[in-house]
Amino acid sequence: MGKKDFDVTKHILYFKHEVLSESEEKKLLERYKISKKELPSIKKSDPGLSGLKVKIGDIIRIKRKSPTAGEHNYYRVIING
Fold it and tell me: What CATH number does domain 3-79 carry, 3.30.300.20, 3.40.309.10, 3.90.940.20, 3.40.630.30?
């Protein structure tokens, strides 16, 4: 099985990635009083984004689960790459 046959979204360590809507983006940026430039970035070519229709500038929510902390959201802005 080559790299092209591997579906990263099926891996045990994969965390759900989802694109925020425009209204969710606005609420997030207002809540933390930040701009998109202040968010950590993620490359458009990142394997975790496979299957998602993303464009440069979109904000992604990554839902991570932890046995001690429960569920926590991380946010990344899509960059070229």
Answer: 3.90.940.20
Give residue-wise pLDDT tens across range 35-76.
999 999 999 999 889 889 999 999 999 998 888 888 899 999
What gap in Å lies between CA 48 and CA 58, rounded to an integer?
15
pTM for this prediction: 0.82
Rounded distance between C-alpha atoms, residue 73 and residue 75, angstroms: 7
Determine the Cα–Cα distance for residues 31 and 67; give it in Å rounded to an integer: 27
